[in-house]
Amino acid sequence: MSQEFGHHDKQVYKLVLTGGPCGGKTTGQARLCSFFENLGWKVFRVPECASVLLGGGVKFQDLTQEDCYKFQENLLKVMMQIEETFFDLGHNSTKNCIIICDRGTMDASAYLEAQLWEKMKDENSWNNVELRDIRYNQVIHMVSAAKGAEVFYTTDHAVRAEAPELARRLDDFVAEAWVGHPYYDVIDNSTDFEGKVIRMITAVCDRLGLDLGDRLHLNSKKRKFLVSRIPEMQELCLVSTETDGSQKLELPENRTDVCKLQNNFPSFQDFDVVHDYLATPGHKNQARIRRRGQNGTFTYTHTIRRPKINQQRAEVKMHISSRDYQILLQQRDEKHYTIIKKRRCFLWNNQYFQMDIYKEPCHPRCKGLILLETYTTKTGDDLELPDFLEIEKEVTNNLEYSMYNLSLKEGFYGKVTTKEESLKGKLVNGTSNGETPNVNGNYITGKVNIVMNGDSSSGDTHNGHSCGKVYGESNGIGSGRSEIFVDK
Questions:
Q1: How far is CA 129 from CA 122, 124, 171, 180, in A?
Q2: By CB neighbour count within 10 A (0-12 exposed, 13-18 middle, 19+ buried), where does 151 fall?
Q3: How far apart are CA 403 and CA 361, in angstroms?
Q4: Would the pTM of this model clear 0.85, i.e. be above it?
Q5: Do 462 and 283 form a contact (C-beta atoms < 8 A)?
Q6: Contact yes or no for 44/100 (Cβ under 8 A)
Q7: In Å, how far are 12, 415, 472, 484 from 434, measured between CA atoms?
Q8: Residues 6+ positions from 436 with CB-CB distance below 8 Å
Q9: For residue 141, how far is the Cα from the chain centroid?
Q10: CA atoms of 429 and 81, how far apart (whole Å)
Q11: 319 and 266 in contact (C-beta within 8 Å)?
Q12: Residues 50-100: pLDDT tens digits?
């Protein structure tokens, strides 16, 4: 497709995420943001203007037809002005930039009668070509869960109350509004939600011409490896050529995020990442917040993981403000440590990797911990790993290395090792001598009885994880009840 470049000769990509109610736009926007930030792009997120205005107390049932018309007209004007603000920022970016719009200008036509839409365009000298075809590089329609995934359709949105039948009609209206855009992709509910999100990200990467190997293949699985050592950091960051032809390594002023290492370490992006688990009533939901950024600039994400429905994990990711992050931080679960890590993202042999370097303060089990992750369809030794890293072993299904378990202050039993062992029943309804770290990092040995929550042979899950309730007998020290989750 045609390329658009900003003032610094960097690509500027304007993307619309649209669709009917409960289509996955919020989570999709959050996933896209993280994905492109990991690639080193600047990401701007344009909020859904309708939610902002409706959240101020506007109720359509209280409006006259004339009020509705003026509201939609003003909504569209506000949307366009906010978008222009982000478009200008994108054109001034010193990085490749993607601007993700939560709905776009043509969405307004789905909520107006045809003659009123034509009247509005005439009065404001607007036309479909400019509003639909020229304004955005790509439009992605996320089909409502009310069409083909009804069991997942919910109305627990701050301003969403549409019944499924109305949601289906609105989805049709919005879809028709964008017909004619030269780069229009529809992401339906033919796969599970994770597959839907992957297809959405793939559609964007395909339009941009980004080749990321098999990372976005629907059959890709996350593989995780324990790294024992990484190259020395003394040779950071940039190589400059001196007048005598020799090379000198220099640290660019205020730029520690984009670096090159000797010893064959490729270019990478470093991010400061902080995770906190939140207290939730009961054990049906798991919630956590994340702060992620570079050079003092951060994005904030709130993730809620719900119980499985029809063997699908329900996970909602939402970008939140710094203020909301600070409010949610007050709900931090005191049974968990804060997880602090440096996340290093890089491409090697056309394979995308993320390496998490755990930082103190942390539980003793996390000191010096380095985990490497990638998504791939390759199994076993077919996956070629970076040769400049010292890989100790693969820990893909090892419960000891799930972030949930790594964050626990106490109650984690190191002898429970893999998802396969628990599902095969090796530790189900039996005993195992386990070492249990207490809150001070000391270890106590006790008798551990594992009771799987659900049918272990079928791999029933709790909260999106394989879950076992653990009861410890430790001579009166550290006795109690905890949970072990497989964090995929």
A1: 14, 14, 22, 9
A2: exposed
A3: 15
A4: no
A5: yes
A6: yes
A7: 54, 5, 9, 13
A8: 410, 411, 412, 413, 414, 443, 444, 445, 446, 448, 472, 474, 478
A9: 19
A10: 62
A11: no
A12: 888 888 888 878 888 899 899 999 999 999 999 999 999 999 999 999 999
